[in-house]
Specification:
The complex is a heterodimer.
Chain A: H1 24-47, H2 55-72, H3 74-78, H4 88-91, H5 112-116, H6 124-129
Chain B: H1 4-19, H2 22-26, H3 30-36, E1 45-50, H4 59-67, E2 80-87, E3 92-95, E4 109-110, E5 116-117, E6 124-132, H5 141-145, E7 151-153, E8 159-161, H6 171-175, E9 182-183, E10 190-191, H7 197-200, H8 207-211, E11 217-221, H9 228-235, E12 238-239, E13 251-254
Classes of the chains: A mainly alpha, B alpha+beta.
Amino acid sequence: MVHGEAWTVKELFVYPNEYIYWTIQIVMYPFMTGLVAGAFVLSSLYHVFGVKQLKEIARFSLVFSFALLPVAMMPLLLHLQFPLRGIEVMLTPHFTSAILSPLFCRGGPGSPQGHAAGGYAAGPLSALFAPDTRGVGYR
Amino acid sequence: MISRRSFCKKSILILGGIAVPLAALELFDPKKLAADRSGPSTVRWVFLVDTHKCVGCGFCVKACKIENEIPYDANVSRTWVERYVVTRDGKVHIDSPKAARDGFTSTSIDQGALGMLKIENNDIDKAFFVPKLCNQCDNPPCVQVCPVGATYQTSDGVVLVDRSWCIGCGYCVMACPYGVRFFHPVYHAAEKCNFCYHRISKGMKPVCVEACPFGARRIGNIRDPDDPVTRIIMTERVNVLKEEYGTKPQVFYVGLTREVK
């Protein structure tokens, strides 16, 4: 069975190869990351910045944050066809990819710089690291 | 007597030395750098599709599926043929049942889950077939977005996928404006048409070119001015798909109309 066949509504797509691969897992990842970050901020407000009103929640939110931290990455990993190769994104990064843009190149289609440069421009660092890749900057 | 300080220093040094992979040292291999800097390739593969000649028999799709080991009954294919039927009320009906693997056996339009649409012969203004395959773009968005660099462009212009490197994130599938990419149902890695790279690199023609009984599909080298395909591209009225995306596609079509998407 083709990956994506189980949930793609074929009333909308009649061509071959038209399957939806990015589904609920992609949405779960930022949601859970947001929970981790939010809980951590809440707890640090008490522990570091001394907001006394948050005494009751501080300890729980710290435990909650650290408990969810290793799990937050799981939906993103499990949506891969090869979850065990997921670490390659860090080990052999390709710097023109917008997945890496918040980390390295700051020029993906999602970032303001990328939009200013016409949507698909590669960042300055990406040109340094991947000179053989033909982005818009190549021309 | 070894002191704690020197023991720590040495162990960090040894661990660091082990941690540096041999692949990182290869970056500084001067021979490889020199080879990479050698002049541009003398070959740039392009494809020419004559839509006037295509009759929608689907031999190309059948041959491609067998040659490239794409599961025969799965609704994914490296190449496919689309049928365009423009009716008198201005509507454009497009279908490609099973990627046109068995040709177009019915005059009805296959709308997938919505069933078959019967169109009266008198209502048809024009109808034609458009074979589709990877455009091997000069500015390939799929190569740009791959987070690990598992897909790359060779010096002769063909975009390839490394099946042993692909992590299966689907970003390239989403990025391709032509819908050419999919996940291989068996190998689970991203899959695409590569002009039968295993054949053209040995001097043979892609299998769809061999299978086409009407010569609607041709492959050529745009860097060779004497190539018949290059001559047609240079002298006749050819068009490409979705030029507005800026991908610089390298599959040229004779007889493309504005209905073709």
